[in-house]
Design goal:
It is a single chain. The protein has seven helices and eight strands. It has a domain of 134 residues. Helix 4 packs antiparallel against helix 5 and helix 5 packs antiparallel against helix 6. The N and C termini lie far apart (86 Å). It is α+β, with helices and mostly antiparallel strands. The strands form three sheets. The chain has a four-stranded antiparallel beta sheet.
């Protein structure tokens, strides 16, 4: 395959009237016998790499979205498990003081959608508060604000999905406390009886020994509880509402 190009040499002055005194130099460029094939190979490799990059980028985005959806479901699950115990609502003034749009640099469109959601509301339930946060920030960050809302209601949330460290948060001095619940040990001689029914009690204890062992293995060993730092009535905090 050959390409031809013409180049004017300029060896003759421009005063000549005849074109034959304006010689040109023709250059023939030869790519080789397979020059056009290599061009097609380069194009194929380029588009293959481009499509591969787009494919893996989409798969990675789907994975991130899956993780986000899982965390969101876990947060809502915590609320749904306690929706019969938690009562009360968050005042809209307290929600505004949290400055969630500013802390997480929400865009103008997200801010408008969140403002439209709370436009005619004076209070937000926990479910509405979760939805308000989801309009502004990434789902992975909802857990903190959900627990702040629970703390504002003066309530506690038990989380049974693994060990939790003790951390201090900026939301009204709430503290996440890791608590160990130890199994009570039976006292010495608790199953000793000198009465005439000693044999009957030993047989009943042996029958229930396997059931007790199974129950002990199922009990959670470590539970994280969100407690308001300044809350004297910790026993009744599940039924107290925000004032």
């Amino acid at each position: 395959m050959q390409n031809t190009t013409e180049i004017e040499t300029g060896l003759v002055d421009g005063e000549q009237e005849l074109d034959k005194y304006q010689p040109t130099l023709k250059v023939h460029l030869k790519r080789g016998e397979c020059g056009h094939v290599w061009k097609l190979v380069y194009l194929f490799v380029f588009f293959f790499l481009l499509l591969s990059h787009l494919y893996f980028a989409q798969r990675f985005f789907c994975f991130v979205q899956l993780v986000s959806d899982f965390r969101r479901r876990k947060i809502i699950e915590v609320f749904e498990l306690h929706d019969t115990e938690l009562k009360g609502a968050l005042e809209i003034e307290h929600v505004i003081k949290m400055s969630i749009p500013d802390k997480f640099h929400a865009s103008a469109a997200l801010r408008r959608s969140a403002q439209d959601f709370v436009k005619d509301k004076t209070q937000l339930s926990l479910k509405e508060f979760i939805h308000y946060c989801s309009l502004l920030i990434h789902p992975l960050l909802l857990e903190f604000h959900f627990k702040c809302g629970v703390a504002k209601l003066g309530a506690k949330v038990e989380i049974r999905d693994g060990p939790l460290p003790s951390v201090h948060t900026e939301c009204y001095g709430s503290v996440l406390v890791a608590m160990n619940f130890k199994q009570e040990q039976p006292k010495e001689g608790a199953f000793q009886d000198d009465s005439e029914h000693e044999k009957d009690e030993e047989s009943s204890f042996e029958d229930n020994e396997d059931d007790d062992t199974l129950k002990k293995s199922k009990r959670p060993k470590l539970i994280g509880i969100w407690l308001p730092k300044q809350n004297d009535k910790s026993e009744n905090n599940l039924n107290t509402g925000a004032k």
